[in-house]
Amino acid sequence: MNLRHFDLNLLVTLDALLTEKNVTRAGLRMNLSQSAMSGGLSRLRELFQDELLVPVGRQMVLTPLAEDLVLPVRDVLLQVQATIETKPRFEPATSARHFTIAVSEYVTSVLMIDFLRHVKCEAPATTFELRTLGKRATEDLETGKLDFLIAPVVYVSQVHPKEVLFEDTHTCIAWKKNRKVGSSILLEQYLQLGHVVVQMDDAGPVNYDERILRSRNHKRSIEVMTPSFDLVPEMVVGTERIATVATRLACKYAKSLPIKLLPVPIDIPPMIEVLQWHRAHDQDPAHMWLRSQLRSAVAAAFAGAPPGTRRHRAGG
């Protein structure tokens, strides 16, 4: 293909068509009429010598060539956008940059609250939008709708750059007056007692500790499900229920709630939380600054190994 005869604006049209797989929806996305979008598709078909979109029943599907073009076209557009937006230097004291970050409630509770408080002093005009984790998070990162993703390493993309932020262990918690639980708990007792667990929404992944328990063929007795990590410690208080939570979160709430911390009677590997961003922003000064700020926040908040109890292997 001769680039001298290629209108680069057609890349935006192509991206919309590849994403929506529908001429009408792609036109709405670009504020163009259906006829204008159909004209763009005709030009693209001629340039690529391929149908790109073909009808199958009542739907349009991508041809094999179109499937291969999805990621490269998106990367090119994001790289162009990053190049245009990138300034030679980033001045946090005067920048009005807006960052979108997908992050769990747990990470928000143990890290982001203090981080955002600190960043307000360093970059008073910078704004942030925290979004929930879910299957759309990796898609939004891919399409450029998301600047950063903070999640356990098993849930992030293998395509884009990432770095480990911190690790955490897991701890069993119970009400201090729970007579069924002493200073330790055996595996059989752990599985029999009623549990409070976090239930992700339908779009989200299985909770980390539940994923590990299932892989070991362990089934616990679940009595309460909540969408909130922060509500779990509250929900064991005044009951005989127990819960398994990240150790840093358990330690935080042990300071204000009548709960006791116990070793989990099964070996749960440390949870590794990673920070990920789109490769198009790898050298963006603003992104590089924010990554350094997050590293500093982790170093200040999590000096040393994760606090809490030792871990026990299965069987007590």
What does this structure look like?
There is one protein chain. The chain is of the alpha/beta class and 316 residues long. The protein folds into 2 domains: 3-85, Winged helix-like DNA-binding domain superfamily/Winged helix DNA-binding domain (Arc Repressor Mutant, subunit A, Orthogonal Bundle), CATH 1.10.10.10; 95-316, D-Maltodextrin-Binding Protein, domain 2. Helix content is 41%, strand content 21%. The chain has 11 helices and 12 strands. It has a 5-stranded mixed β-sheet, with helices on both faces. β3, α5 and β4 form a beta-alpha-beta unit. α1 crosses α3 (34-48), α2 crosses α3 and α5 (105-122) crosses α11. It is globular and about 75 Å long. The termini are far apart.
Brief characterization of the structure:
By secondary structure, the chain is of the alpha/beta class. It folds into 2 domains: 3-85, Arc Repressor Mutant, subunit A (Orthogonal Bundle), CATH 1.10.10; 95-316, D-Maltodextrin-Binding Protein, domain 2. It is 41% helix and 21% strand.
